[in-house]
Specification:
Keywords: Lyase. By secondary structure, this protein is mostly helical. The chain folds into three domains: 7-108, Fumarase C, Chain B, domain 1, CATH 1.10.275.10; 113-361, Fumarase C, Chain A, domain 2; 365-427, Fumarase/aspartase (C-terminal domain) (Ribonucleotide Reductase Protein R1, domain 1), CATH 1.10.40.30. It is 61% helix and 5% strand. The chain contains 19 helices and six strands. The chain has helices at 16-22, 25-28, 32-48, 54-73, 86-98, 100-103, 112-148, 168-193, 212-218, 228-233, 236-262, 290-313, 328-351, 356-361, 369-378, 383-400, 409-415, 429-435, 444-458, and strands spanning 153-158, 161-167, 195-196, 223-224, 270-271, 353-354. Strands 1-2 form a two-stranded antiparallel ribbon. Helix 3 runs antiparallel to helix 9, helix 7 packs antiparallel against helix 19 (444-458) and helix 12 (290-313) packs antiparallel against helix 13 (328-351). The structure holds arginine. The site of arginine has 10 residues, from helix 7.
């Protein structure tokens, strides 16, 4: 302990396993840029508060920029057992570059508790903004495909049983609308993440008169955290981002599951590009949808990180406790998983081919049984009765082996005399999807309307 930055009161050394158990440098070095930028803002605020002379501030600023250059160039040498975390590592190196007399003034009034919260918020904000652009790209591909493939019809399923015909684009946009809500939520989450803890101190705030608003502005924060204890205590911003990512990954996973089913030989609605498939080491004919399976599988991992962090934070007393260091790795892993997943999903979707003939051939006249019932409703028959009559038509077809669309007018007449000759026209899938013309339905104009709504969100 005596070698450490905080070693003044310590005489004994740390258990070597405790050293590695305690250190976070091998993962929190991910925040080197944020840590340096935060320290420059901190030094400037201390200069303005009269703690650092202009010469001292300039020396610290240029020294910190040199430290950052070392990180970027890959020449920063972590000293094992000394550089406990990114904050102590940067400060140690700064002291070596500009001398400890000036370097030792940087940490005036500051705590690593506010530093780590600042670094994590800056890092997460920037990553979430990248994720926002990936999500927008994904949705653009969805909207474009939905528009181009508007005339393709496909079975719609409930219980994975063929239910009613829909437009392929309608299926696509069912996910598009879910991801659009994810985009909405993400934009709200970013604002809450992007609040500055800097100036909160270890827990009690700052006694040297630093201008918190000026520091927040310099670092691009949207606002300040209003309670110093809460500011160092909370990892709500990480939890919320991971809850957001978990919801998104739920949608990714279900979307992937649909496409895994649709890419089987039995369905063959879609075919994945080679770039997103892999072969079998044993069976030469295999082309497996590994990209989609990983999207489904990695969703479990993303949920796990979120649930794990909630368990970590739920019983911690206020304010900073070392347990909070356990929020860093789940955040790094979760964010990478979500970020990569959206980009992979975009790749899969933009390169996947569809087989409209196979989709059409999978439609089954029974899927129009509801239309048959609706037909009689329009002739004034109560729905409960028409449902039963249509059921009798299904039974007739099953018993005789005559497909429902091949039944004759007299077959229908025998079942119910209120069927008129135009009943034969009901057996048309295009006609069926066009009939569902209320907002949100399968009619072409209604699906194109969804495309427009989606595109407007992406501008
Ligand atoms: N590395 C720590 C973290 O990630 C910050 C250090 C705060 N440590 C302390 N003993 N107050 O949470």
């Amino acid at each position: 302990g005596e070698n450490m930055l905080w070693g003044g009161r310590f005489t004994g050394g740390l258990d070597p396993l405790m050293v590695s158990y305690n250190e976070s440098i091998y993962f929190d070095r991910a925040f080197h840029t944020q840590d340096i930028r935060g320290s420059i803002a901190w030094a400037r605020a201390n200069h303005k508060a009269g703690i650092l002379s202009i010469a001292e501030f300039k020396a610290i600023e240029s020294g910190l920029n040199k430290v950052e250059e070392e990180w970027v160039a890959g020449t920063f040498k972590i000293i094992p057992g000394v550089d406990e975390d990114i904050h102590t590592a940067n400060e140690r190196r700064l002291g070596e570059i500009i001398g400890k007399d000036i370097g030792g003034k940087l940490h005036t009034g500051r705590s690593r508790n506010e530093q780590v919260a600042t670094d994590m918020r800056l890092w997460l904000r920037d990553e979430l903004r990248k994720i926002e652009t990936y999500l927008v790209d994904f949705l653009k591909v969805m909207a474009a495909r939905a528009e181009q493939e508007i005339d393709i019809l496909v079975p719609g399923y409930t219980h994975l049983q063929r239910a009613q015909p829909v437009r392929w684009s309608h299926w696509m946009l069912s996910y598009g609308m879910a991801f659009a809500q994810d985009l909405d939520r993400l934009r709200e989450v970013i604002v809450r993440v992007n609040q500055s803890p800097l100036g909160a101190g270890a827990l009690a705030g700052n006694c040297f008169g630093v201008d918190r608003e000026a520091m927040a502005k310099e670092l691009g924060f949207d606002g300040l955290l209003w309670n110093s204890m809460g500011a160092v205590s909370s990892r709500d911003f990480v939890v919320e981002a991971m809850q957001w990512g978990s919801m998104l990954m739920t949608h990714v996973s279900r979307w992937a599951e649909d496409l895994i089913i649709y890419s089987t030989g039995e369905f063959a609605f879609v075919r994945l590009a080679d770039a997103y498939s892999t072969g079998s080491s044993l069976m030469p004919q295999k082309k497996n949808p590994d990209s989609l399976e990983l999207l489904r599988g990695k969703s479990g991992r993303a949920f796990g990180q979120m649930a794990g962090l909630m368990m970590t934070v739920k019983g911690i007393p206020s304010t900073y406790n070392k347990d909070l260091q356990e929020s860093v790795e789940p955040m790094l892993d979760h964010v990478k998983t979500v970020s990569d997943s959206i980009q992979i999903a975009t790749g899969v979707l933009s390169t996947m081919s569809v087989n409209p003939q196979k989709m059409l051939a999978s439609l089954d006249p029974f899927m129009l049984a509801t239309d048959l019932a609706d037909y009689l409703v329009k002739k004034g028959v109560p729905f409960r009765e028409t449902h039963h009559i249509s059921g009798q038509c299904v039974a007739f077809s099953e018993k005789t082996g005559v497909s429902m669309d091949k039944m004759s007018y007299s077959d229908f007449q025998k079942i119910d005399s209120r069927f008129e000759e135009d009943i034969l026209k009901s057996f048309n899938y295009e006609h069926s999807v066009e009939q569902h013309s209320a907002i949100g339905g399968t009619a072409k104009a209604r699906v194109l309307e969804q495309v427009e709504i989606l595109k407007k969100m992406l501008e």
